[in-house]
């Protein structure tokens, strides 16, 4: 019987054995004797010890396989998570400030406009000048009429037209076939339509109001002399509106018609805007607002600090007959 067969028989009997049980034909040298002796002594144990060894080996294999499976699941999970994050980042790349798409944030609150694709329009915080009284170095837009004032308004209410594409009009829900084009001699090509940017029209309208402020005075103030208060009030309102129009910088565009009553193309001011829901704002305001009568009845508590207004402010508003407490506080208010 060969050595391997003899070993197999011993394992099957599962009992202790000695070197004497092996056939000598497989013992060819002293080294082989020693190797076989070590091998046989390893298994010269009782039945219980062999079973425990086999169980430990099975447990070790099971734990190893479980660890490998767990590691595989973790690798798969991390791969899927990485793939998801990469895909989300690519899909949202255009939505990230500084990403690929120019003026992404403005496009979310505006109608489609070629201006938003043509130039970068940064967003910035701008504290509006809402003071009532005139100051030194007052803005040109609050000053009394003069050639310099008219020139300043003319610059920001520019009425120079710009070229629009056919698609620009389509984006506004218009039929381009009804709109006027620039002749090719203007250098814009054969399909350039006459257009303008709406913010400049809005400022133009405000300037017209500035130039016609006294039209309705007799109706609204029949028994009141127009003095410094009304002049300042009108100037304040016009300038506040101007700053808001310039701050918003509406870049929606509009086209022009050819009409039979004049030689020049006529603007179509009936254009789409992306607007905030004003009625929703008004409804919420009415829910939380304090009635004006209730507000008007409020008086300053004795322990509250008071701002001492200028002599000029008290004169214009006729708040006091004397001005013993004249001060410079509140210059940014009035």
From TrEMBL:
Q: Name one GO biological process term.
A: mycotoxin biosynthetic process
* This protein's record includes keyword Cell inner membrane: no
* Domain of life where this protein originates: Eukaryota
Q: Does the keyword Transmembrane apply?
A: yes
**Where exactly are the transmembrane stretches of this chain?**
73-93
- Which UniProt keywords are present, listed alphabetically? Membrane, Transmembrane, Transmembrane helix
Regarding protein family, the annotation reads:
Belongs to the ustYa family.
PANTHER family, sorted? TAT PATHWAY SIGNAL SEQUENCE, YALI0B05434P
Q: Which protein, by its recorded name, is this? A: Tat pathway signal sequence
